[in-house]
Amino acid sequence: MIARRTALGTMAGALAGLAMPVAAATRAPRKLPRLREGDTVGLVAPATALTLPDELDRAEYWMRGMGLLPKRGAHVTEQDGYLAGTDEARAADLNAMFADPDVRAIFAIRGGWGGARILPLLDWATIRANPKLLVGYSDTSALHLAFAARAGFPTIHGPNAASRWEKASWESLWHLGFAGAAPVLGGKAVEVETMRAGRTITGGTARGRLLGGNLTILSTMLGTPWVPDFDGAILFVEDVNEAIYRVDRMLQQLKLAGILDHSAGVIFGQCTRCNPDDPESVGFTLDDVIDHHLRPLGIPAFTGGNIGHVRNQLCLPHGATVELDAGARTLRLLEPIVT
């Protein structure tokens, strides 16, 4: 069991340290309500069942540490095989959170697999009528992509509720979701601080809609009506526990689908535990494979950064318009996503 007092103290200190002028957010359609201390947020399990020790406790601990009041979905403790309840139950929890006027944002508790299964069961009319921050990553990428295609408002690709909410994660969420700011995310100073270096493939800047997420999830959703238009997008991808040859295969799939050729810029985030010693991957390094696919595009592109299955991962404004600076390895949000 996690010490709640420790979390609250950590978050309080972070809030105090971030007491800075807030960029004014202009009122415009499809912006989201900002988070404020004391707000109620929904916890849902749209994918894999919650089977890890204290997983739900950890999720609630982080939410309370942010000054938020967690509200559990009615079915989050259920299990149907490896899923967190039936498809209908998981979809019902997400639909209920968007319909609930007291809920200001929604966090996925964990990823795994299963989010794509509920997409046809979501109440898209209610979701579009009630814009709220949706936060999560990994399998939650299925929801981010579908929301970018169907909902008409941004979401936040960042830690799931039960993940570790450390400095970079919390600060980027605060800027995006609480402050209504338009921050610059990433960069060399952050790379040094987190000891997670990036690498510029092709320099330059590009602007576009930030789209992507987990490479495996994105590649498996291609050809479905749940994928947004990537023409002129800033594409970002990340993955975990993949052999290098499978990363090659998935990037080739993005190439053949036209996504790489139509993107304005690309970020390949962290590929955590992507095993160079896999016997079927010998001969190419991960950097070799990434360069094979991204360098010939001639568009701004870089690798690394705090994006993916890593501690201190950044919260990213999925679906919002950003400027990528590949030389500096940063993303700059061009307009706040909350009001």
Protein described:
α5 (141-150) links the parallel β4 and β5 (155-157). This protein has 339 residues and is of the alpha/beta class. α1 runs parallel beside α2 and α9 (244-256) packs parallel to α11 (286-294). The strands form 2 sheets. It has an 8-stranded mixed β-sheet. The protein has a 6-stranded mixed β-sheet with strand order 2-1-3-4-5-12, sandwiched between helices. Residues 1-29 have low confidence and may be disordered. It has 11 helices and 14 strands. The chain has helices spanning 4-17, 55-65, 87-99, 124-129, 141-150, 167-179, 188-194, 215-221, 244-256, 259-262, 286-294; strands at residues 40-44, 69-72, 103-108, 133-136, 155-157, 184-186, 199-202, 205-214, 234-240, 265-272, 301-303, 316-318, 321-325, 330-333. The longest helix has 14 residues, at 4-17.
Give short descriptive properties of this protein.
single chain; 339 residues; alpha/beta; 6-stranded mixed beta sheet; 14 strands; 32% helix; globular; disordered N terminus
